[in-house]
Amino acid sequence: MSATGSHNFGLSVVIPIYDEADNVQPLVEDILREVSALDMSFEIILVNDGSRDGSGERLDAAAKAHPEVKVIHFAHNCGQTLALAAGMHEAQGRTIVCMDGDRQNDPADIGPLVEKLDEGYACVSGWRQDRRDTGLRQFVSRVANTIVGRITGVDVHDLGCTLKAYRADALEPRELFGEMHRFLAPYVAARGGRVAEMVVRHHPRTAGVSKYGMGRIARVVADMLLIQVLFQYRTRPSHLLAKMAQYMVVSGGTLFVLGLLMDLVLDTSLWSLGFMAALVTGVGACVLLAVGVCCELVMRNRYLLGDRLQWVVARRVNFDSSRDDPA
Question: Domain range holding 163?
């Protein structure tokens, strides 16, 4: 998973940061206290997702004070999914734990998550059973979790909880986009990994401002539809479009037969409308099949030739000297 392909640490903790200046120092101290007590080597990767409130300076100060802390500064805001993806891409731990930067996740849960992962799971997903958020956010989250669970068959109560532990080979960060950080447990399952769930603590926000709002609902719904496509047709998009073309042909043929029958029984001229419907749907089906073939070629080229990242890094701190930028 790492950019270097090596696993030099037992644990990598990845945290996206966006305008969390007041939370950076206590967050780093809390994580260091907890992971230092674990019997494993570790690194902490903080991804500055284009913060504008002074978080970048606080992150650099933390990296200067603690060599275990590494910082990735994005050139601009790319969103939580790509911030997590960039951190996981650079991670060199055999185990990766992701968590939010607002201090609502508890670093004391890192150890239990790692222990559970060692039971043979590819992903252990945190469940904020006693969630400290507004009632509306909790309601929307429950609805989304139920729908995604039925689509994917992955029975996880709290898909939106960032606090999760992964095996380093459980997913490919370069395949993450949109709001996919919410669906990483189903994504791991789609790649053949076993997923478990564990209750974790959740604290009220004590500093900074929440970045979540109702405006995200539309994006989440879109990604819920996307996750179904990824589950069934991720490597064979032509099959999806072929199925849609099949439905179009059946619908057009049905309309034509109905029009013809009504023309014979009721002496109408609806057969022509049915014929036009059949013609339009037939042509549309052919177009979909052609698009499906093109999508298949694009997908295959992506896997064979694609080696580009979706995010832009301005500089790195405390990484390997061959790629470091000074703090």
Answer: 9-234
Read off the CATH number of the domain in which 191 is found: 3.90.550.10
DSSP SS3 for 134: coil
Residues 298 and 216 in one domain: no
Examine the domain organization and report whether 134 and 156 are in the same domain: yes
**Low-confidence spans in the chain with pLDDT less than 50:** 326-327
Is the domain of 191 the same as that of 81? yes
pLDDT in tens, 186-242: 889 888 899 999 999 988 777 756 555 555 555 666 666 666 666 666 666 666 667
The single-letter code of the amino acid at 193 is: G
Local structure of residue 197 (DSSP, 8 states): E
Question: Does one domain contain both 201 and 299?
Answer: no
Domain contains 316: no
Helix, strand, coil share of the chain (percent; to 5)? 50, 15, 35
Residue 282: exposure state from Cβ atoms within 10 A (0-12, 13-18, ≥19):
middle
d(Cα 100, Cα 108) in Å, to the nearest integer?
Answer: 14
Decide: 169 and 2 in contact? Cβ < 8 Å. no
Per-residue pLDDT reduced to its tens digit, 287-304: 877 776 676 566 556 655
Angle between helical axes of 217-233 and 237-266 (0-180°, round to 10): 100
pTM: 0.73
Q: Could you tell me if residue 325 is inside a domain?
A: no
Query: Helices (H) and strands (E) in the chain — how many of each?
Result: 9, 8
Closest CA relative to residue 15, chosen from 30, 5, 4: 30
